[in-house]
Amino acid sequence: MKKRFADLHCHPHSRSFHWLRGTRHEKKYGKRFHAWNVVVSNFKRQEKGKRAFSYSQCDPVKLWNGETKLVFASLYPFEKGFYMGGTVERSKVVRLLDVISTTGLGFVNPMKWGQALFALFTGAPTLFKSSRAFLQSLLMRMPIRRVKYFTSSKYDYYDELLVERDFLFKKSGIQTTNQIFIPGIKRLFKSKRRLRRNYPDSLNADGKFVICKNFDEVEKTINDDDIAMILTIEGLHALGTDTAPQKAEERILEMKKWPQPVFFITIAHHFNNYLLGHAHSIPNSLRILSDQEEGMNESFSPPGERVIKLMLGLDDNLERDQALGHRILPDLKHTAVQSRKWYYDNIIDPCAAKGDVIPIIMSHVGYSGWKTLQESIDYSAHENDDDLKDGFYPWNINACGEDVVKVAKSGGLIGLCFDQRILGDKKDKRNSIDLIFNNLMAMIDAIVESDELSAQQKEKCWTYFTIGTDFEGYIDPTQDYSNSLELDDFGKDLMSKISLLSPQKKAGYYLNNDEDVKKAVEGICFDNPYEFLRKNFQFQE
What pTM was estimated for this model as a whole? Predict the structure, then answer.
């Protein structure tokens, strides 16, 4: 099998960006403010595959050494809802302390805990807010200076998006030997030379990534054995819809003039963006820290309907208008099932009837266990932390069978998420490859058993899937594949799982020989998103 990989959704620059942003490395030594300046990880947690708040999963060094040659790099202005909004009542103190005792926070600054506990027991509203911010910073290993900025009046999503974009662009096309950043007091006790020697794959690389403008550049970059990056965005809140909703359409048009095009936007995320509904995503046990009720599980708003048409370059009659610029594809991960249904009924199906087939992307999902959108809608009002549906995570953040069929019918693409909870396991009880394989095969079954798809569409069932790890997305990863260095293990394990299927099973999945199995796995690991770009990333400079 070819040793090269693609990742449909990850944040390769995110950890470095947040740790370097607002420091002297940005303000005084701008030359060190770039994605190849990697933040030293907690290697014990990395090796154990623990929750990835304290180690890097897919920085450029790990991508380079892990042979991830095609990267859909997601820009994400951090949402204020993690630190602001909602209420914290004295009656919830016990629940909060329970969260504290079960999250495995590791190193704790006693001063910060003292401030948080003082806030809890005094009952002062402003201090309650501070305690929540401190707890979130500890849970997410986010520098306090960033939390202060997120909660300040200076923080603007769209402005931050542009800074993050330029941070990623800074080293595009430049061969670079990586640097190492050790945060805070840790730099007094850690030797960069010793760290490089002990963890060479994580901390040593001399490589290059290129933010690509079109498929021709993707092809050339990969042929040159460099990393081809495709620009994406997670969340339409990045347009600044919380404070300037009237500017959303204007900013989409601005975005379409960027030198490197945005290929797709994950249109919803964790909190209300006032354009469409977001799916329930944060466990109920953490609602005391992050309240995402506003706008959750709703459909599109009228402004959202206009924005989605503008992204796709459609006029009010769903006709392509070249004056509206190139097409930015919507990614439906995090989109509430009610909004997905509206999108299918009012955009996808009418456009397809006119011959304009818009490929559907779900960039980092698992299977929900539900067959239809309506079943997912019905359950969305009753989503509980401990629920499973036939071993799958049934929340509407995941794809149901009807979603999968819609993707296949449109020639779209689904990224297999590497988040344990999304795959249906929160307590490390199931093998990593079994988790991913079971979710994949359930979605393959939805295609093969569909009455809506042609024989040819069913024969192509393996081509609609790829890897969409959500690395650096603050996930609890599958233990065996916690970062990009371990994707080779995933490819080998997936090959073994498929090879163990009986001849009858393989035939039912259009795998008639070993070469077909190899082709299916190589497609998921790399070829499928590469061919998807060949068809859909044909922009003119």
Answer: 0.92
